[in-house]
């Protein structure tokens, strides 16, 4: 398996053809550093969660409304004052950076076996589309919550604090997921615990961590770190090393997300879009690369159990005026449906249905 890190360090001036994206994907592929600095144009909304601690119900209601509006219009938001200690977030980032700073042969000890269906561990994306194209990234992927379902044998032993800080972060993030799901439920006129119950509750909702490592790329205008997609999860929480690269397809254009210090970037995933009957959006997004700085992101996907729950629009949100927009499917069936559509439809087609 060729690691992108090795390719990047080999001194190549042009990227191998399997990493070159087709012309229709190369729209708005300018310099991400310049794009992030843009003052004009749409900007990802910011939601200050400190307001949810207010004793004033009006302040709390206003915060819920802002989160609801962001979920309806964008499907993504920057969460600030989210309650997770910044020291812990920095420790998580430092641990991930230390793992990827190890020699590739050391990281290979944690390599996954994608051909046998085992995606947990250290890896690089296999081509899963008809054209056989690859993405300019390596990654580390594993379950981090519930703790009793985690296989610690595949967690990095170096750096030594990796397990401790990642586990602590997972516990904090699980509480934050509950808070967000509660706010989103109320925004739909449902009981506060409804969405969380529908995605598996405390026992069954899985938190999967994927650390994405995007090496410097000699031809960033021709490659993608992650191709355009929507997340299948219920929610996705994202940290990054303050190097821009995330782009969102909003209102017909690709918008580069700004790097907000100490924030957590949050996506609404397909699962919540389906349950809300499309009231909340799962936005198309992609990861850009550059020739100046390594970019690293920490994505945690909050996923329902694969086969236990049938995902479909909640009956309270379906009517003659607003019929169900999505057929009933298990989480596994939804993933398979998306993979099938990906080979059949052009890039940018709506793959959430």
Automatic annotation (TrEMBL):
PROSITE patterns, A to Z? FE2OG_OXY
A single GO BP term for this record reads: flavonoid biosynthetic process
Provide any one GO MF term from the record: metal ion binding
What domain of life is recorded for the organism?
Answer: Eukaryota
Q: Which UniProt keywords apply?
A: Dioxygenase, Flavonoid biosynthesis, Iron, Metal-binding, Oxidoreductase, Vitamin C
Cofactor section: L-ascorbate
- KW Iron (keyword) present: yes
Which InterPro entries does the UniProt record give?
A: DIOX_N, IPNS-like_FE2OG_OXY, IPNS-like_sf, Oxoglu/Fe-dep_dioxygenase_dom, Plant_2OG-oxidoreductases
Write down a Pfam family by its short name.
Answer: 2OG-FeII_Oxy
Ranges for domain Fe2OG dioxygenase: 205-304
Gene3D superfamilies assigned: B-lactam Antibiotic, Isopenicillin N Synthase, Chain (2.60.120.330)
Family assignment from sequence similarity: Belongs to the iron/ascorbate-dependent oxidoreductase family.
Q: What is this protein called?
A: Fe2OG dioxygenase domain-containing protein
Identify the species of origin.
Acacia crassicarpa (northern wattle)
């Amino acid at each position: 398996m060729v690691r992108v890190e090795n390719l990047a360090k080999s001194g190549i001036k042009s990227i191998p053809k399997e990493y070159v994206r087709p012309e229709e994907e190369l729209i708005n592929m300018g310099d991400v550093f310049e794009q992030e600095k843009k003052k004009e144009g749409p900007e990802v909304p910011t939601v200050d969660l400190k307001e949810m601690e207010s004793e004033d119900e009006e302040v709390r209601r206003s915060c819920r409304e802002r989160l609801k509006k962001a979920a309806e219009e964008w499907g993504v938001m920057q969460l600030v004052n989210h309650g997770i200690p910044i020291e812990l977030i920095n420790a998580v980032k430092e641990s991930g950076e230390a793992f990827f700073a190890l020699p590739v042969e050391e990281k290979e000890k944690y390599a996954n076996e994608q051909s046998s269906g085992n995606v947990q561990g250290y890896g690089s994306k296999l081509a899963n589309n008809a054209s056989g194209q690859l993405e300019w990234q390596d990654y580390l992927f594993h379950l981090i919550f519930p703790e009793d379902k985690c296989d610690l044998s595949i967690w990095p032993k170096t750096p030594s604090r990796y397990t401790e800080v990642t586990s602590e972060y997972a516990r904090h993030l699980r509480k934050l997921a509950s808070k967000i799901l509660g706010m989103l439920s109320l925004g739909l006129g449902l009981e506060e615990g409804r969405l969380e119950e529908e995605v598996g509750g405390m026992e069954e909702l899985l938190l999967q961590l994927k650390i994405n490592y995007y090496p410097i790329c000699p031809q960033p205008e021709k490659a993608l770190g992650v191709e355009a997609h929507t997340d299948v999860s219920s929610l996705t929480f994202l940290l990054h090393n303050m190097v821009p690269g995330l782009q969102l397809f909003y209102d017909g254009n690709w918008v580069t997300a700004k790097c907000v210090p100490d924030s957590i970037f949050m996506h609404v995933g397909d699962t919540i879009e389906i349950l809300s009957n499309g009231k909340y959006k799962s936005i198309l997004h992609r990861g850009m690369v550059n020739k100046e700085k390594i970019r690293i992101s920490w994505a945690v996907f909050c996923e329902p159990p694969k086969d236990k729950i049938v995902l479909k629009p909640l009956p309270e949100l379906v009517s003659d005026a607003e019929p169900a927009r999505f057929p009933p499917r298990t989480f596994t069936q939804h993933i398979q449906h998306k993979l099938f559509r990906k080979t059949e439809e052009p890039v940018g087609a709506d793959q959430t249905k």
